[in-house]
Amino acid sequence: LDDLLNAGVEGRAVLVRSDLNVPLDGDRITDPGRIIASAPTLKALAEAGAKVIVTAHLGRPKGEPDPQYSLAPVAVKLAEVLGRNVQLAGDVVGQDALARAEGLTDGDVLLLENIRFDPRETSKDEAERTKLAKALVELVGDDGAFVSDGFGVVHRAQASVYEVAKLLPHYAGTLVEAEIKVLGKLTEEPERPYAVVLGGSKVSDKLAVIEALAPKVDTLVIGGGMYYTFLAAQGVSVGNSLCEESMIDTCKALLEQYADVIHIPQDVVIADSFSADAESKIVSVLEIPDGWMGLDIGPQSVRRFAAILTSAKTVFWNGPMGVFEFEKFAAGTKGVAEAIIEATGKGAYSVVGGGDSAAAVRQLGLPEDGFSHISTGGGASLEYLEGKELPGIAVLEG
Ligand code: 3PG
């Protein structure tokens, strides 16, 4: 970003792709982390006199305007965080966006409506994506620039992330720069022991990262909903717990190949239904009755995982250990997070990756500064650690 600021932005329109994809409960933002993390770049540009045009997505609307995915609540929060007025365009690149862009004065901030209301954003057809990118370029004019600051979306080859960077002088924002620096520390000679904790619901989402990391780390701790597919792979009955049948063979092979590295729970907290006030009990993983489902790891597993984590020198954590949104099933996630905080206090380098685990830290009232870094990227940080090329980063380097 400094390169752009040094080149001078006063009076210039600058398009910024931010990741403002925050969790909502109705129109209430339950975790504003990504908005707060996006603020420094926007603030720096506005203070330097740029006309700042922000584009972002929220959720996965179906390529057409849908009020439940409007960025309206985000615009309100962004204004509060920036301490300046933020206009929200009524459309993405239509009449209202154009008129508002033309009316901007130095230091103004305009947020375009959810970029995914336009089907071209996520189109598989590059020509379509390029058309949308050209429409975005029109908003900033000939003298414009593009700043890529949405780290959470750099793994997406989408119009506002990828194609637009090819059409305008482009720069990385401070958030993207910081995230790459931090995650780079995990891939370049991490201090050992290096422990990775993976949770979350779907094993299919995490398979690639497990395969990439298992040979590189000292310990891979697995919990969360995805654990039950590993349990099923051991021939154990999982009751009504989440289980991806099609992944069972792969999980079995991973458990065999990385028996020394992969650590899985021995006890779990089970429930008779998926609800906050379900009846619950702690059982061995070998004793999940029919009709019950595992919603958290048990206390014995927490103790064992904590022993591993508190002696690690590098820790990466992605994905909750249980349904932390329900108090009864939050202890596993909390216990693991507290162990990582303890390790960090003893000098370990710890990174929390992923929207859900970052949200868990804040919602469980854990200190954010207890970790070395809380990444804003979910899929993006996993793909970075897998060693995949991230299109939104590659295009900036090209
Ligand atoms: C995320 O939540 O990880 C990013 O905002 C990307 O969202 P997506 O997975 O819908 O592309």
TrEMBL record:
GO terms for cellular component: cytosol. (2R)-3-phosphoglycerate binds at residues 34, 116, 156. One of its GO terms (biological process) is glycolytic process. It catalyses: (2R)-3-phosphoglycerate + ATP = (2R)-3-phospho-glyceroyl phosphate + ADP. ATP binds at residues 206, 294, 325, 354-357. The keyword Protease does not apply. It comes from the Bacteria. Monomer. This is Phosphoglycerate kinase. The gene is pgk.
